[in-house]
Amino acid sequence: MSSFSHTDDKGKANMVDVGHKPLQRRSATAEGFIRLSEHTLNLIRENEMKKGDVLTVAEVAGIQAAKETSRLIPLCHPLQLTKVDVKTRVTETGVRVTAMARCTGQTGVEMEALTAVSVALLTIYDMCKAVDKEMVIGEISLIEKIKTDL
Amino acid sequence: MSSFSHTDDKGKANMVDVGHKPLQRRSATAEGFIRLSEHTLNLIRENEMKKGDVLTVAEVAGIQAAKETSRLIPLCHPLQLTKVDVKTRVTETGVRVTAMARCTGQTGVEMEALTAVSVALLTIYDMCKAVDKEMVIGEISLIEKIKTDL
Amino acid sequence: MSSFSHTDDKGKANMVDVGHKPLQRRSATAEGFIRLSEHTLNLIRENEMKKGDVLTVAEVAGIQAAKETSRLIPLCHPLQLTKVDVKTRVTETGVRVTAMARCTGQTGVEMEALTAVSVALLTIYDMCKAVDKEMVIGEISLIEKIKTDL
Amino acid sequence: MSSFSHTDDKGKANMVDVGHKPLQRRSATAEGFIRLSEHTLNLIRENEMKKGDVLTVAEVAGIQAAKETSRLIPLCHPLQLTKVDVKTRVTETGVRVTAMARCTGQTGVEMEALTAVSVALLTIYDMCKAVDKEMVIGEISLIEKIKTDL
Amino acid sequence: MSSFSHTDDKGKANMVDVGHKPLQRRSATAEGFIRLSEHTLNLIRENEMKKGDVLTVAEVAGIQAAKETSRLIPLCHPLQLTKVDVKTRVTETGVRVTAMARCTGQTGVEMEALTAVSVALLTIYDMCKAVDKEMVIGEISLIEKIKTDL
Amino acid sequence: MSSFSHTDDKGKANMVDVGHKPLQRRSATAEGFIRLSEHTLNLIRENEMKKGDVLTVAEVAGIQAAKETSRLIPLCHPLQLTKVDVKTRVTETGVRVTAMARCTGQTGVEMEALTAVSVALLTIYDMCKAVDKEMVIGEISLIEKIKTDL
User: NCBIfam families annotated for this entry (chains A, B, C, D, E, F) (predicted)?
Assistant: First the structure.
């Protein structure tokens, strides 16, 4: 039966040794969603029309958060990201955030993509909280994870 | 019609001026959920029985993330938190995280509570990702927000 | 003859004691400039017309940098900023950045305003460096500094 | 006509993909200047004679800031610097700061050198602001940028 | 029997609630020692004579570390330090570091003073490690802790 | 006579150039000790029996601190750690902390191991300071340092 990689046989926390794994091209894409009221969605659309900043601030916050992942998640390894892309899309019921991260390294970048999505969603929450008391963040999951040899 | 507090009349990003608001006792509680497979839940319960660390690491990561909120969310004000509490509870289908933050300040602490929940959930995701490929993080929302005069 | 507040009588570095100063409302405004080529300025104007992000990313970076000031400047005191505003303006020869910071505290916020300006200018440099090899950052100075009793 | 590497065809912010570029030895040197009053310059010279710390604190702050570059500039890639050197030189009218950064990586280190210069200059500003109200920071530019194959 | 303030009755980690404590002037002084070889001590004395930087870099690192305390120690509250002072003194057998921290706050600053001492000592270790393989850091303890009403 | 690698011939601080050194597998182990009262040791043992968190929080803080080393120690190079392990052991007179760090890089990881030990010990100090006024941290030293060719 498979077991946690981040705990030893006594169940104690453990940063896994990735030192003997080969360098590979790693890519991961994650997404998530924030449910917003009709009123808030109209304000966001209006802000977009005025060339306003709401969604751009969220995207920038997501990119920066990807670079903070190993400082936020205690057992994550530091990685040198070669690309991060965070995109937002207004839907009928909220905003969907998609983040893609890439690196050449010894371990995967899914936590970086998931952290970017989470912080971008929190940033939208922050910017809309004065007008919307019913927001819910959810559906945060990994969409794709790829590794290819150099 | 109410509008965003974090954008000016041209829709540009803006850190709201809270300098003239009174100091008040502020408290906020948020929660969220990560859906896990039966197998993963059994491993977590077993880890708990062995006095293992999985949920403690998530709680500690959440507490620390609350203190990072204003660095992660671009338009958040820095706050001096006087208390943070993060708790995890294993359910039939996953783990529920609840976070409470408090400060005496000029603006609310809901973003701190929500950030603590989000990072605790990401930490659980990180520790379980070797054994569970179907995890989804969601239901992140504010449960309670209180302000009382000094 | 007046002398440095940040060094003791042997000339050694020293974080000044501000603990006995009264709490006051503090505000500071700083500005700076980045000289750009005609070609780069056209690209920035075009980006603005497309609702692009160049100047917004710089403004967000400046706001976030203001919150990092006491971590970047060794003898700066940590402050709880109550407002930060960073604005960019395209001129005939480059981009002018203005930043305003406010707090209620025991020491001034000019370093926060100056740090916001500097990092916003560096961010513009970063985004334009693929197309402009002649950029110069300068004219960074304090425009106004105000303190008022509570 | 060349265009911004950090924006996509809609003008949206974008951390460029450097994952397919070869590892190369990268080096960059930047400089900048802070204009100081005669009185302040005399105090700095006197501090130097007393083996005081003013310029050393600025140099250390610059070295540390170089390591923070990817956290301050939103679209900068994280890099593993192999060397940073920051030097200050008192002139007739102020202090000139020169910074050199090196790494073996897939993208250049000019932003690291420029950030080191900017933060060293801000640190001098901070240490002199009690005695000099006319300081101006400027002339921040790239002096040299080298890449060589491994 | 007195018990830990940082754990609840189940022994789980807990950031103590200090929100109802009065604001007081807080001060703490800590010290520590690094044992060095005769050869290393001679190099440090020579560096001092040349107006070199070894001990200044350690003092600056200590001041900056004091400001990082709540980010390094998971259950520490964020504080607004009003003063930090770190001093080093070469003895017959090593270097003694003393750090003093002050704030006006609801909880003490001993962890800030102890963290400043620890990081200043680690910085000396780092700068001497090429020449001294027998260094030991120790005797880190609190010397004095004061609180006075406003 | 050997001299400091981190200072130039004028004794000025200097981040050593490691860019021409080969990539090697690096490993370092450090340890340290905190002396605790009989009463405090009993509380820690009791906390362990209740599956409490005191020592786990210290271990997690140590792992995270290892990743912060180059930000705390001014002349340390940034490294991509591939493994960190921090363990605590209750003795008759206190708690012993051992930390091991590994990377594949151009310079050693002893500062990372020593920083992990120091911050884990400070975290124990923080959690026990309400009940123990006589704690002393010491005996922090390097136990082993290994480099092997790839």
Answer: moaC, PRK09364.1
